[in-house]
Structure formats: C-alpha cells, structure tokens
TrEMBL record:
Gene3D superfamilies: 3.10.50.40. Keywords: Isomerase, Rotamase. It comes from the Bacteria. Residues 108-210, 215-318 form the PpiC domain. This is Survival protein SurA. GO terms for molecular function: peptidyl-prolyl cis-trans isomerase activity.
Length: 643
C-alpha cells in the first residue's frame, strides 16, 4: 500500500476544480515509494515539481474549457488508451495470466499417453450418450483388471489412427491437446488410467505411460529417400540406396551438403543441406521424432529411419532448452485464446462478476422475451413487446441498477445485432452477450470508484491527451507555422543569435597513411580559397578515392573540437587526434556579428515555442485562480522530503 492511498484532501483548487493531493504524489512518485531516505527528494525538487504540476493542471483546465475533451478525435484516442490501460486490472486478466502460467509450467514436462476414443452416433439421444459412457467405464474396468490397453484401443477405439498406432499418442506437452484431455492426462500418475473424459470428439479413456522433463527443441537436417512401402521391389531399391548414402556419410572426406543435394528426394530442403525448422516433442511424426531426439552430439548422424514418407538419415544441428516464460508468453496467449480455455476463462469471469456485483436475473421476464423472439422476426418481436408494454420490464439487476427489455433492445441497436427467429439459441446467445457487456461495464465502474491506482492512471492519460492537444494547438504547431511571429521574435531577440569570431577553413581527415606525405606537400604552402577543395580532389581522389575525406566552411573556431587547438595566425596545420592525421588550411577571419534568420531558424522556433509556453502559463495564471491547501502541502512535503 503506497502513501498516496491515505491522502484524500484536495491539494489545489484550480478555478472551480479541486485536485487531490494523491494525484500530485502519484506524479511525483514514479519509480519511487518514499519509504526510505534514499527514495526521498530534496526540498528544491519538491517545490519545482509542485510549480510544474500547477502549470500542468492549468493547461488541462484550459483544454477542458476550450472543449477539447468533447472532440471526436479526443474520444477516439482516449477510449483506445482506456481499453488498453484497463485490461491489466480486470478479473479476466488475472484468470488469463493464471492459465498462461499453468500452460507454461506444464510445458516444462512432456508426457506420453495412449487413449481409447468412443464417439457418439449421429443425432445421439440421451440414452445413446449414457450407453457410450457405460462402454467407456467397462473398458476402463477391463484395462485396470489387466487387459492390454493398446489391444483394447485396436479393438474398440473410434480414433482412425488406432489401427496403426494402437492408441499411442506418443509424447506431447501443454496446448497440443484439447483442454479437457490435457487436464486429465497431466493429472495422472504413470500407469494410471483415467475416468472417461468428455470432449467434443466423444469419451476418452487415457493411460499415462511416461513423463519426463521437456528436452526443449532441436534443429535437424535430413536426407530423404522416398518409399511408400507398397511395392517390395521399390522398397528394396530405396533401402539399398539409403544404406549406400549412409555408408558414404561415414567416410571422413564425405560432405553432407553435397550428398544431400545429390540424393535427397525432399525438393524443399535438398539444396539447403536438408535443413528443417526447429522441432519439439509432439510436433512431428513419432518415428522421426524418436530418431531425431535420440541424437546427442551436434553433427551426429542417425541410422536410416523409416517413416510413412520413406527413409530418413537425420543429422543433429543444434539444441536449445525450453524458452523463458517471457519469450513464450505471446505464443501461449495466442493458443490459449484460440481454444476452449478462452470460453472457460470467460465463464469464470462472468461467475465472479455476478457474485461481486449482485447480479439477480428476473427469470420469468427473460423467458417471456425469449418466447417472443423465438419464431418471430426481429421486427415482429419488437412490435409484440411494444403491444404488451414489456419495454420497462426488468430483465436483471447489476450493482443495484435495473436493466429492462428496452435496455436490451437498445443494446441490439447499438451493436447492430439481430436475433434470428429460426435459431432457438439466438436470443440466449445475445442475451448472454448483453449480460456479459453489462457486467464488464460494472467492473470498470467499480475500478473507477474503488481502485485508486487505476483512477490515477486513467486520469493521467486523459489529462496527457488534453495537454498534448492544447500544446500542439497553441505552442508547438503554432510556433512552426507562424512565420511572421518567428521573424518578429528573432528581431526582438537578435542579441541571442550572434556569431562569435569565425574563420574559413578546410579540414582534411586522412584515410590512407601512404597518401599523407604527398597531401602534406600539396597543402603546406596554401591558404584557404573556395577552389582549394576541388583542386585537392582532382589531384588525389580521382585515382585514390579512399585517400581522405574533408569538410570546408566558415567555423566558430573557438568552439570547434579541432580548430580551437590551433594557432589561427598560421595557414597550414597538421595534428593527430583519436589516431587520425588531420590537415587544416585556414583562410580569412570573419568578425563577430548577427546570424541571418535562415542560419538560426531552428533555434528561433525552439525558443519561440518556449516563449509561447511561458506566455500561455502566465495568461492561465491570470485567468484561473489557484489556491493551495497549505496543510495538505505540508503533509505531502513530509512524505516526499521528510524534513
């Protein structure tokens, strides 16, 4: 709990607006809590920041007075920021974070399992569902009594792959199976068989066979000799070919890349050394996976490995451990939000919100409206509701506020939604959406009322957008576009824009040491003239363009890092700086005098902006009264400075 949470009295009154002390302390306490002596600030900083805060609030007050908070541009930008700022404070975010972390912690382990799938018949009745469940329970009982689980999968599983893999799913980790299946599998002990698990596919019985730490990812290359295994002759030919390639690879002088380009039958990788993307357990076919992950040393080559595609020789290129949570979070979040976990999270959010905000549904009225919408068009339903005078009927209460049938219809209009009369679930889905939206609004309102950190953050961004709009309109953009004002400011402050004594100079930085003597001889007796650089170029750079670089111009010699070290009474100089040889040729001196407007326009605009800013603050201090609560200021001073 920060100190700002106990400070409630207004610190300032700007015009007719009271500004609480916690708002100033919030701005002052970025990256510090003032709990230790090292976190305190000195007295001068406190008062400087207080003056800046007053100026800031004056500008925000002026922006509101000018109606900048009513513009469409402000509303659009503020709502965008508000949505982004609100997300971390919502119930949904904490539940989602928990789900992401649970998935990552599971990813630290891989598990191996087999399953038996029992699907429902088309248009299954409740009796059909019960019958399938009973069959699943019977198979579980048989397996636990000693029957071979994988043979039961061959005989009974509706998973088409069970005939080939005997129900084995190999190794997998989090987010590779549907949520209910994953939860059940990860909660088993090795050798344990699950109760029937219901998913969209049917009932599953799962047997856990192994679990081990996640070996991370590997990058491999392969040479592929294709074979479908349908013709014994071609199969024998493929096996002989891959064996000969493997024998060649054992020779010290062999080149993996050359043999891959010559013999691999994977057109997508043969010309890039057979390189494949990074793989992890559960992402490739089991036969390839077993062989690839059995390789231990980088550069190690597997014996020929048979898969449904043919024969592979696999080379290990690199290993890397499971990435950190921070690196994997975007991927995990994307996958969690795409599967059934997101629906589960939303259901939990709604349940918590209903409990927290006193949700009470008027079930009879909801059913009446449901019946009206089902079987009628949207227009007909609205007409019936109007005829029966149901618009003011209560549908539910949230945070003590009653939501009526009319409110629901207004929601449909605002969201441009319609209930399809032919869809029995149409009303239910949209009513649930309305309830969810209303609960979300209640949560945000609760944050604005009771969460000080959230309130201050939203206030900061609102005021920041208004401040930017005001400053852009009256200071920054005005200074850039007001050319007459720039010139007027320049003329009134000409004393700020003066050249000190300058000198004409040519500065050469040598690039090649062998050119130094000849360039020295060329320049030694010269004085700077405008054509000296072109003569220098024509003499040396045409045939040797890297011999040196140069710059020339009129310089304030006393401020120049090289020229200030030289005697400008002599024309030619040679010096070494930062390991580089430089030649300097001086010309005429230029006495001090005013800079032309074009020569200093950038600085004029900058200082004109500062002038407009100060003028704005002076005007606002005259326009709006500023009153400071001295008692509150002393409390804040004690907190921040502690003296």
């Amino acid at each position: 709990m920060g100190p700002q949470e106990v400070i409630k009295k207004p610190l300032l009154t700007v015009g007719d607006e009271e500004i609480p002390g916690e708002e100033f302390l919030y701005m002052l306490s970025k990256n510090r809590q003032f709990k230790t002596a090292e976190q305190k600030i000195d007295s001068a900083d406190f008062f400087t920041n207080l003056e800046l805060f007053i100026n800031y609030k004056l500008k925000v007050r002026e922006a509101v007075n000018l109606g900048l908070d009513k513009t469409e541009e402000f509303s659009r930008e503020f709502e965008m920021f508000k949505d982004d700022l609100t997300q971390p404070f919502l119930i949904k975010n904490s539940l989602q974070e928990g789900e992401l972390m649970k998935a990552y912690n599971r990813m630290k382990e891989v598990i191996k399992a087999s399953h038996i799938l029992l699907q429902f018949p088309p248009n299954a009745s409740q009796a059909d569902t019960i019958s399938v469940l009973r069959m699943a329970l019977k198979l579980k009982e048989e397996a636990e009594a000693g029957a071979d689980f994988n043979q039961l999968a061959v005989e009974h599983s509706d998973d088409p792959s069970a005939k080939d893999n005997r129900g084995s799913l190999g190794y997998f980790t989090a987010l590779q199976m549907v949520s209910a299946f994953e939860d059940a599998a990860y909660n088993l002990q090795i050798g344990q068989i699950s109760d029937p698990i219901l998913t969209d596919y049917g009932y599953h019985i799962i047997k856990l066979e192994d679990r081990m730490p996640n070996p991370g990812e590997i990058k491999v290359s392969h040479i592929l000799v294709r074979s479908q295994g349908t013709d014994p002759v071609s199969e024998e030919r493929a096996l002989r070919k891959v064996s000969e390639i493997y024998t060649e690879l054992q020779k010290p002088e062999s080149s993996w890349e050359e043999l891959c380009a010559l013999y691999s039958e994977d057109p997508g990788t043969k010309n890039s050394g057979g390189s494949l993307p990074w793989i992890s357990l559960g992402t490739v076919i089991p036969e390839f996976e077993r062989s690839a992950f059995s390789l231990q040393e980088e550069g190690e080559i597997s014996a020929p490995t048979r898969t449904p595609f043919g024969y592979h020789i696999i080379r290990l290129e690199e290993r890397r451990p499971l990435s950190s949570y921070e690196e994997m979070e975007p991927m995990i979040k994307s996958r969690v939000l795409r599967d059934t976990r997101s629906t589960l999270i939303q259901s939990q959010v709604v349940a918590i919100q209903k409990s927290r905000y006193g949700f009470l549904e008027n079930e009879p009225n909801v059913e009446v409206v449901n019946q009206i919408f089902n079987g009628n068009s949207q227009a007909e339903a609205r007409k019936l509701i109007e005829e029966r005078g149901l618009g003011s009927s209560a549908l539910f209460v949230v945070s003590g506020e009653t939501k009526t049938v009319k409110d629901f219809l207004d929601f449909l209009d605002a969201e441009q939604l319609s209930v399809k009369g032919s869809q029995k679930s149409g009303f239910t889905n949209l009513f649930d959406r309305y309830v969810s939206t209303t609960l979300q609004d209640a949560e945000v309102n609760d944050l604005m009322t009771n969460n000080e950190e959230y309130k201050l953050l939203i206030q900061e961004y609102r005021d920041g957008i208004l401040l930017f709009s005001l400053m852009n309109e009256q200071v920054w953009q005005k200074a850039i576009e007001d050319s007459l004002g720039q010139v007027k400011f320049y003329n009134e402050h000409i004393d700020r824009y003066q050249w000190s004594e300058r000198i004409q100079a040519l500065i050469i930085t040598m690039g090649k040491a062998e050119s130094i003597p000849s360039v020295r001889r060329f320049l030694a007796d010269k004085k700077y003239l405008p054509n000296l650089s072109s003569r220098l170029e024509n003499t040396f750079l045409i045939n040797n363009p890297l011999a040196f670089t140069y710059e020339e111009g009129v310089y304030e010699w006393a401020q120049h890092p090289i020229l200030k070290k030289l005697d400008n009474g002599r024309n030619f100089h040679e010096l070494t700086q930062d390991g580089k040889t430089h030649f300097v040729v001086f010309g005429d001196k230029v006495p001090p005098g005013p800079k032309k407007f074009e020569e200093t326009r950038g600085k004029v605009i900058q200082e004109y902006q500062e002038f407009l800013d100060k003028s704005l603050v002076d005007r606002l201090r005259e326009t709006y009264s500023v009153q400071i609560n001295e008692e509150e200021k002393r409390k804040l001073y004690q907190t921040a400075v502690g003296k």
